[in-house]
Amino acid sequence: MATNAKAVFLLFLGVSFVQNSNSDNELKLDQALLSVSNYLPERIAAFYVSEACYKCLPQLLLTVSPASMGVPSNTSVAVSSRFALTVTMFAEADAVAPVCSWRALYGEQGWYLLTVKPIKNTTEVSCTLSVEKDPENGYIPLLVAFACMIAVALLYFLGLYVSKLHCTRVHCHCLQHKPTSIELHSAESPRPVEEKPKCRRLLSLDTFRGFSLTIMVFLNCGGGGYWFFEHAAWNGLTVADLVMPWFVFIIGTSVALAFHVMMKRGVSRIQLLRKLTWRTVILLLMGLCFLNYGPRDGPLSWSWARIPGVLQRLGFTYFILALMETFFCLKDLGRYQFDNRWAPLRDIVLYWPEWVIMVILETLWLCLTFLLPVPGCPRGYLGPGGIGDDGKYPNCTGGAAGYIDKLVLGEDHIYRYPTCKELYKTTQPFDPEGILGTINSILMAFFGLQAGKIILMYRQQPLSILKRFLIWAVLLGIISAILTKCTQNEGFIPINKNLWSLSFVTTLSCFSFVLLGIMFYVIDVKNWWGGQPFIFPGMNSILIYVASSLLSTYFPFNWEMKFPNSHAEPLFQNLLGTSLWVLVAYLLYRKKFFLKI
Description:
- The protein is of the alpha+beta class.
- The protein has helices at 5-13, 140-169, 203-221, 243-264, 269-289, 310-328, 346-349, 352-371, 400-408, 421-424, 435-457, 462-484, 502-525, 535-538, 541-550, 568-590, and strands at residues 31-38, 44-50, 59-64, 73-80, 85-91, 100-104, 111-118, 125-133, 181-183, 199-201.
- It has two domains: 5-133, Sandwich (Immunoglobulin-like), CATH 2.60.40; 140-164 and 205-590, no CATH class.
- α3 (203-221) packs across α13 (502-525).
- The chain starts with a helix and ends in a 7-residue tail after the last helix.
- 41% of the residues are buried.
């Protein structure tokens, strides 16, 4: 590990050498125990750098007192088992040249012993790392749960197949039918009671929404305590980073379908303005008043209330997108004819004013991100600050995005515990739902809007819809590869959920086109699947999201666990809580209760 010898020397001299043997401490999830046995007649100190921490300064891990009368001194410390750690050991007599250095990925709940001994008749030192207690396989509960879900799904589809065979043998008439066209409904209105015989709701969109919401509820419950079900510390992607962008994409698709239907029904633009304003205000108030704090925070005070939030971002994104559709939505698409040269681009050409607006907004994001001067920070800084980038910019978390939020909203009104705080040792507040990132949230929703327009224009040609979805997915994937240079941290614009970077939007939009395309083909074209069980929460998404957020700490969604340091019980608790909310959504669906805003 390349280190700054002078910095390490100063850190070593500043250490308070107190032996803190904590081998009896109970380990938490994603932790292992590292014990160091020091046979040297001098004090030693270990510094570490996590593999997940990009260009980070070494941090003090532990210190070990010198051996006494040939009896070694022992010290233990809990270390992370999420990512590999590079550890470097220094002796008190020489704080520049390391005694030894090693890189290891520690197993969860394992106990590792490092023995540091002098080699007889030499000045060299021997460092031996051994396993005193084998780690546990924390992925077994997840594999068991996954196998159970696959088994349940197979049994469900087997039951459907058997019922169809029975239906055929008794010459009964199946109630299902293959639609010849797609009814353009979205989640803004529930399934109609009386449907046209050859037309139905776009079930794949509801299923995609419900799929995203189900994962979101599971993650909000705790995700079984697995690190990949938490947000990435800074650059990169985890499962938790996928669901909200999918929601934003779905907002765009829903707006395209819903506004087209309302325009065809003769709803005036003034009525549309009232509707979209009402929905936006409700979303903003729900996010600000209900989901920004919990009972344990005490009475809400404006002095520390967080202004941004998930629903606030969704509401503002919806407002801008719906406002554009109100003024530029076309009522009758069939009367617009194009020659062969422009026909393949008609879903873009017809809405050129919206594209101009989006180009302006994205240009604004790029200029503010890379050209805005931020005090004490380099222009265009996209890092987490703290100990990252060799500790050069400790107070520059988020660059221009963090600076704008603090300038406009104030430090007391943005998120104080960003995901980079623990790994990068940051001290600055940073809000992942901040002002600058909302511009790219609008861009993400706009790609969803484009998917909706494709469905509108090619609704009689399902294969054309799939082809255009694939083209968009490939195009956005190529843009992402260029922006990131196919790396996590070395690209022009890395994938970053905290910043909602441009590459993050293009990557997640690529995934969205692929997923929606697959669901559209399986559900709406081939009728192989009805979207169960995800379609049920997908048709009551606001109610399920808000209710699950408000009641997440109450029984039966949460209880005091007897074995919190194993993944099995947290995973069972979180899966049970998620399943209960899906059941609630199913019961509401059976009662034909759909919450509308």
